[in-house]
């Protein structure tokens, strides 16, 4: 099987635009979660009035202004999630130094870009327009802006990539599935290079209403937004919705070597599983996440005791964090595992950026790659008292402050509604 490596990274997050800005702010303990109650009366009436927003402003300050990144025509044709995907892809391709020109190179380069929800704004606004004015009030761009695979389509069209053009939509596991599936396309020879990741932008009263009615969101910190997302903390009470995009350039190892590409890490393993349990709630025993991690390590050929870091899915929900914590401990302390829980290094970066839904898996995969590349564990914000019960939460959760560690093997976990689970295993070359 051909080996797959990561040669480019691109980020759009609530901590800012670009890998360097996002990573440095993450390590410094910044939080991108803000109040949204002043955006409109509809937001102010919601039980959860906070979100991880991509900051708007000048490009030179690391902020988002669509006119700095694309033409008016492109802005009309692309929904916000696709715009984020395009900008993150541009950074990742520039970082990788991959700008194919020959027909052979273009045919060997593909795109795999997913989203969990896509453009809810377009659905809502077009529905209202149709109700008021009928057929003629529906934009001819409505369907193209709506379709989740158009993010991959726009990227392919902009750069002329003629390899696989694909999209996943698997709720909050989307970004991880996109990267893992893209790696397999390279392993099986369908492409030499893949631009892969996830993007999301659905900070809309309707989306927040839906998650709030499902009792998934944090509602107790509307006046203290930066304290709301608290993975593994005993006072955790729901996730904070966020937006952004994470994109990687994946490349076949020998292809990367021949062109002298910078290699961040190898994508050594990819594991998938299903809870087969409930539409939204995880299994309390963590069997699904445990199986995903186990399969990722099996594909990579690593024993559990070789894992130096786990970037957890941990969204700050009582059931989800507990189930994942149990799964990690059972796997990494089991057969061929570590001797004690304190040797397990886990953090959840959702304390800093919230839960980016379909983009979370790819953004957090990039954080995992950077942890490997820089031997630095990103912190879990707002973790004051692990639990509950505290005796079950006895790993090293990298509370508040980044830690220096020798990281050679790392897992990045993502789980989604419908019981879908994925784990990516990255390793140093």
Query: What top-tier CATH class of the largest domain fits best?
Result: Alpha Beta
CATH superfamily of the largest domain: Thiolase/Chalcone synthase
Total of helices: 16
The CATH architecture of the largest domain: 3-Layer(aba) Sandwich
How many distinct folded domains?
2
Tell me the fraction of residues in β-strands, as a range.
15-25%
User: Radius of gyration over alpha carbons?
Assistant: 20 Å
Task: Profile the largest sheet.
Answer: 11 strands, mixed
Low-pLDDT regions: none
Please, what is the average pLDDT? 97
Instruction: Tell me the number of strands.
Output: 15
The helix fraction, in percent, is 25-40%
Which structural class best describes the helix and strand composition? alpha/beta
Distance between the termini: 16 Å
CATH topology assignment of the largest domain: Peroxisomal Thiolase, Chain A, domain 1
InterPro entries: 3-oxoacyl-ACP_synth-2 (IPR017568), Beta-ketoacyl_synthase (IPR000794), Ketoacyl_synth_AS (IPR018201), Ketoacyl_synth_C (IPR014031), Ketoacyl_synth_N (IPR014030), PKS_Beta-ketoAc_synthase_dom (IPR020841), Thiolase-like (IPR016039)
Domain Ketosynthase family 3 (KS3): 1-428
Keywords: Acyltransferase, Fatty acid biosynthesis, Fatty acid metabolism, Lipid biosynthesis, Lipid metabolism, Transferase
Family: Belongs to the thiolase-like superfamily. Beta-ketoacyl-ACP synthases family.
């Amino acid at each position: 099987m051909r080996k797959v490596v990561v040669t480019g990274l691109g980020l759009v997050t609530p901590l800012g635009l670009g890998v360097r800005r996002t990573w440095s702010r993450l390590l410094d303990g910044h939080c991108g979660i803000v109040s949204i109650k002043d955006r409109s009366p509809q937001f102010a009436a919601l039980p959860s009035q906070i979100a991880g927003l991509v900051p708007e402003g000048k490009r030179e300050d690391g902020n988002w202004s669509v006119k700095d990144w694309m033409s008016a025509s492109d802005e009309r044709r692309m929904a916000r999630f696709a715009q984020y995907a395009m900008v993150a892809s541009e950074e990742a391709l520039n970082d990788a130094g991959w700008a194919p020109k020959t027909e052979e190179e273009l045919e060997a380069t593909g795109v795999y870009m997913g989203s969990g929800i896509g453009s809810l704004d377009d659905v809502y606004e077009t529905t209202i327009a149709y109700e008021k004015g009928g057929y003629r009030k529906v934009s001819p761009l409505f369907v193209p802006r709506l379709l989740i695979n158009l993010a991959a389509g726009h990227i392919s069209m902009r750069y002329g990539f003629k390899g696989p053009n694909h999209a996943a939509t698997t709720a909050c596991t989307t970004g991880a599935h996109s990267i893992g599936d893209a790696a397999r396309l390279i392993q099986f020879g369908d492409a030499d290079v893949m631009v892969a990741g996830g993007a999301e932008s659905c900070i809309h009263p309707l989306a927040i209403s839906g998650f709030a009615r499902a009792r998934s969101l944090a509602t107790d910190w509307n006046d203290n937004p930066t304290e709301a997302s608290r993975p593994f903390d005993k006072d955790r009470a729901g996730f904070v919705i966020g937006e952004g995009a994470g994109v990687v350039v994946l490349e076949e190892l020998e292809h990367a070597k021949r062109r002298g590409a910078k290699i961040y890490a190898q994508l050594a393993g990819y594991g998938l599983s299903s809870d087969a349990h409930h539409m939204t709630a995880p299994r309390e025993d963590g069997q699904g996440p445990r199986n995903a991690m186990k399969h990722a390590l099996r594909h990579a050929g690593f024993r559990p005791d070789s894992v130096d870091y786990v970037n957890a899915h941990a969204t700050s929900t009582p059931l989800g964090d507990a189930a994942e914590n149990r799964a990690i401990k059972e796997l990494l302390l089991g057969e061929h595992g570590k001797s004690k829980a304190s040797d397990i290094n886990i953090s959840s970066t959702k304390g800093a950026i919230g839960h980016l839904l379909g983009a979370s898996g790819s953004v957090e995969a990039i954080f995992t790659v950077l942890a490997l590349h820089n031997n630095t564990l990103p912190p879990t914000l707002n973790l004051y008292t692990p639990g509950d019960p505290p005796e079950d939460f006895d790993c090293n959760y990298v509370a508040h402050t980044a830690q220096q560690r020798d990281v050679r093997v790392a897992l990045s976990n993502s789980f989604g509604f419908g019981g879908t689970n994925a784990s990516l295993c990255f390793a140093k070359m």
